[in-house]
Write a structure and sequence with these properties.
Shape: globular
Distance between the termini: 38 Å
Order of helices and strands: EHEHEHEHEHHHEEEHEH
Largest sheet: 9 strands, antiparallel
Number of strands: 9
Number of helices: 9
Amino acid sequence: MNAETPSAATPGPEQSAAPGAEPRGAVSRRAVIGWAGAGVALGAAAAGSVAAATLRESEPAPAAAGGDIPFYGDHQSGIATPVQDRLHFATFDVVTTNRDALVRMLKEWTKAAAAMTGGREVGTGASGLAEAPPDDTGEALGLPSSRLTLTMGFGPTLFEKDGVDRFGLKAKRPEALIELPKFPHDNLDPARSGGDICVQACADDPQVAVHAIRNLARIGMGVVNVRWSQLGFGKTSSTTPEAQTPRNLMGFKDGTHNISGTDADALDKHVWVAPGEGPEWLTGGSYLVARRIRMHIETWDRTSLGEQEGVFGRTKREGAPFGKQRERDTPDLKAMPEDSHVRLAHPDSNDGLMILRRGFSFTDGTDGLGRLEAGLFFLAYQRDTRKAFVPLQQRLAASDKLNEYIQHVGSAHFACPPGIRKPGEWWGQALFG
């Protein structure tokens, strides 16, 4: 979580309908209610290790107010895309050793993702055979896409796990896809760390985000199991710096100097993997670090205002750096305490180092001792984790005053391939090809 900069490590073939039926591939969830009496196609349930009916992939549905976010493109959506309000993040363990089954699942996932981000049902949706489970779980029927994005990545263990090259991918593992080192003060829960595959679902409606992960998990049954997941709310950083800067659960504005999603030069410099920097299948992709950061809320809430502001190096009400009047005034780092979060995390203190942050707040009830289980689910994208998150977090973990009030309790690292450029392509195609 970082109130100053994105470099803070703490806190992109349609199936024909039955004769005489409406072409459902072009019908969005937004239109379901109005089309309640229309003819529909009947689909047969598919059998096999991938528990998914045939999925439809068609032209995007008409844009709702605010517009659907395009699924197809040079880069995956959900990275430089304007940050939505809600998150459902999930990691999966691959439970099969059958490479063909995994490839089939990734193809079905891609078709489903294209449909859901376009506001459409998966497969025949709620209109299949009465004797078979529906292709779509149905809780998003009638809802708009809510700017849903789905971003997928591969973890180190997909390439080699316990010394076994399960899918013949070991030689294709990027050198930068490292196992993250253990940093000082880490207290990582293995049950909330790692994973072979991740999917980041972001939307403005939590039900739409949850629906997306639920349907991918359903499609993947027998091939993957959910390892762990995290719900998030209230974005804590923004890729639209012209908008109001959000606040984290400590009440401070976060991500004042985050990379703009429209700054192509900065994205090329700090986020996208360049040609020749790794395996060809990852060119145009990015590396994702996910960290679950517990905030000691009760301790923080009993801390004086002056102490809180000194921890961050900014005023709480305005978010102005010490010695300045407005949030976006150029900070005088020397006017801040040497161990303040902003001073340590600022690009000027780190040779210009920046990463793109998309963090969310979370609250998961209490811990059994009456304390809130709350904090920051930190998500950051970068061109090379070894040269971005790792050195930055090492610096912060060593001397950041904020460490008295937070603890990193979950961690994962993924290589996110470039975008799906057109229908018929699929997530991981270049990797498995």
